[in-house]
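User: For my dataset I need records formatted as: sequence, then C-alpha cells, nothing else. Please produce one.
Assistant:
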Amino acid sequence: MMKKLLFNIIISTCLILALSNTLRGVTLSAVGLGGLNIAMQNQDPNSDYVINMLKFGYLAGGGLDLELLPLAPIALEVDVMYEQRGDSRYISLEKEPSYVNIWWKDRVAYANKLCYLTIPIIVKYVRRSRNRRFAIYGGLGPSIHTILSARSELNFIVDGESFEFSYELDDDEIKLLYKKTDVGIIGTFGVELNHYLLEVRIDMGMQSIYKEDIPGISMKNNSACLMGGIKF
C-alpha cells in the first residue's frame, strides 16, 4: 500500500509541475520543516487509577507547496515527515489509592514511543501582503501515517523500590500488534515572513491503531506540533 501511495505522490508531483508551468501566477515551492511534537494516546478510560501524560518528541521532513495566487487564495501542500509519537501514563498498583497524582506509593510509569512516516495533504487558505513577503494561512486535510518502529518502557515503583524495563518490538511484533497505516485529520495555522515559516499543527487520529479492538478503550493517536521551516 505504501509503495502505491508513494507512486501516486510522484505522479501527482509531476502533474503539479506541469500545471505550474502552464498557469501564470502559480507558484511551486519546496518546503523544509522541523519542530517539537507533543503527543497523547487516549488509550485508557476515565479512571482514578490512571493518569495520562504527554509524550514529547520531534518531527522533521519536507514537501511541496503549490500556491494558486493570484488565481485564488488557495494553496496545496504535501509533505513527507519523520514523526515521533506515543504517550506516557502513571498507573496505580494500590487497591484504593488515597489521592490521584503521580506520588502513589505503588505505581507503574509507562511510556510508549512510536515512530511514523507521515504524509499530510493540506489545503490552505492564504492571505499574502502586496509585496508577497508576508503571509498568514490556515488549512485542513487528511494525514496518513505508516509505523516504522515501536518501543515500550516500564518503571515499577513498589514500596519505594524502582525496577526499570524497556523493550523494542521487532517487525513481526509490530505487525501483530499495530495497524500498519493510521489515518487522521490535520489542521494547521501559520505565518510566513521572507520565506521563513512558523506553524502550529494539530493532528487527530480517526481510528484505533491496534489491530484488535479492546472493549471500552479507544487507542487513537493525537498530537500537536510547533514547527519552523523555510520555503525554497
